Structures are given as C-alpha cells and as structure tokens.
Amino acid sequence: MLRGYEGMRYISDNLIVVLDIGSAYTKYGYVGEAAPRGIIRTEIKCPESKEVRQIFSYTDKDDLYQLLVEFLHYIFFKRVVISPKDIRIVIVQSPLIPTVFRNTLAKVMFQHFEVGSLMMLPTHLMAISVLGNETALVLDVGYKEATVIPVFEGVPILKAWQALPLAAQVVHKNIAKAMEGILPEKELTEKLIEDIKVQTCFVTTMERSAKLDTNDPPTPPPFVKYYTTMSFEIPGTVREKAFETLWERDLDNLSIPTMILDALMKCPIDTRKPLAENILLIGGTVMAKGFASRLKTELLHLVNSNIYAEKLKMRAFKFHTAPSKPNYTAWLGGAIFGIADLPSRCISKEQYLQSNRVPDWVNLIDNKKEENSM
Question: How far is the CA of 341 from the CAs of 63, 83, 175, in angstroms?
Fold first, then answer.
C-alpha cells in the first residue's frame, strides 16, 4: 500500500491538474494535454444519506464545504488518481461565480487537501487563449445561464457583460413539459431529458420559427422512436420547439441575440467591429445542431431592425471555430495557460494560510497602491 502511494506521490510531483467545475458538468485533466481526461456530472453521492446531490445545490457554507470535500476526493483519488498534497491546481471558473463558492473551494483545497498552489482563471479569457487571438466576444451558454463578455486585446470589457437565465435548464423544462402526456413524471429524469435533447432535438430556422404558432404552421419534422426501459415516440414538434425559448424576447426585449448586440453597444465604438467579427461560442448548449446558424440569422435580422439599425453601424458577424468541442474550450485554455509558471497569478499555500482569504480584484484591500515610504 505504501509503495502504491509513493508511486502516486511521484506522479503528483510532475503533473498540474486542471479543473473546470460547471453547474452541470466538471472537466478534469492535466496541463499540456489537448483534451480533458474526463467529463463528469457535478454531483456526488453523500456517504451519510446515500443521496446524490448536485454541488451547486448547497444550503450554506458548511454544506458546500462537505460537498466539495467529497466531490474533489472522488476526482483526485478515483479519476485523475493523484495525491493532491503540495501539487499545483488550475481552476477555470466563470467571473460571475458566487464569492462564497470560490472562497469555500479555496478553503477545501488548501486546508483539507493541502495543495501547493491554486491558480484561478476566468472562463472567457481562457476560451480565447486557444485561438491565438486576443480579441473576441465570448458567448458562454452552459446549464443555468448564458453570459457574454467582450475581450479586447486581452482585456475584458466588464462594463459590457450580459447574463440571462437562458441555457440548458430552460430547454430541459420545455422538453419535460412537452413530454408529460407521453411519459409518467417519475420516468422523466434529468438524465433522460438531457439524452432526448442531445440525441433528437435541434434548433430550427428563424423562418420556420416565425410560423410555428400561426394558424398555418409548417409540417412538423418526423417523430423519433426512443428506446429505454420502455419504448416511446418523441413528436417532431417537441424536437423542433425545445430550444425556442432561447430566441424569444421577454418583456424587457432580451434574448441571447440581443445580449450580444447590447454588449456591443456598451463597448467603445472602435472595438465593436473587431468584436462582431470575432465571436466565440462556448458551453455545451451551443453544440446543439443549428445553434450557430440560427444565432447568425437572428443577429443579422436584429441589427437591421429599428431597435439597433441606428445604434450599431455594422452588418457582418463572424464566428470562430475553436480547435476543440465548445463544451471544453475553456478547459483547454486553462491547460495551455497553466504551462506558464506565473507566480503572480498563483495563490500559494503559505499566502492563503496567512490571510485565510482569496484575493479579489473588486476588493480594495487587494487593489490599493502601496504608499511610498518617506
């Protein structure tokens, strides 16, 4: 047993672990690799209650601490098979993540697992690092929300950021509601709904979408036969309408396309054209068939409408194709960036134990200038 631990210890000394902990899925792997070693659901089976719980469904800090301890223990010892003591960890995370989550995660890493250092990197900046381009407008559509952050010459334009609760969770609710009369409620598990979405649903065109709820709707796509413990049919209307909520404007005239245009309007004028011609889509939801095509059509339609025609003088939108799947593009950026030894970006164990807090750019304590000694 000791020999096995020593082998694990030797491996740990030569590897840097990269984690991207999302609301629904977590990507894990090592720095310098082209893809994560694995993608797992962000949930863990509690040893006491034997209940499977999502990490982000915590009730308070203590509950979150225990969930993260169990979840990270599973990742370190069952997935990446590495001893976390004194190793370097790279965390890729959204800049909009709750402060309590970031601080509790750091506490678990340093006080429970005794990692050597922690590097916390923003999702949107890491995503564009895979392009070899320092300017991009990054749209991240994950499980709970869609966020837009423009990045110009490597600097995020934070005053222009946008966020809406339009993501996979809304799509899942649409599918569950549409399937209520076809399957019993107890059969409609989150896993089944997600599989139905991935395997059978798609984003329809803007032209067809405009006719779906009219008196003369287009002929629906064919139904799909789905086989599980029982076989059932998924109607074509369910397949076609699942993603429609992402494009429907609410009472405030907001949707995913308007988020991009509103973000551009809040950017300096000279940055708007480069940003519009360097759009990067990340997150699992943008992998839906037809998503990018529908988004471009919607943008071109809106930018010529009365709402935006006078405000945005641009008529072209271009999308990047990253050298990875959109659901792990940010992780790949972290795996690339983590190769560099940048002490200023790392939080060492010694630094954390002295202050018991994570430096935060919005906190004046971490941003005040040192006074010159007289």
Answer: 34, 21, 46
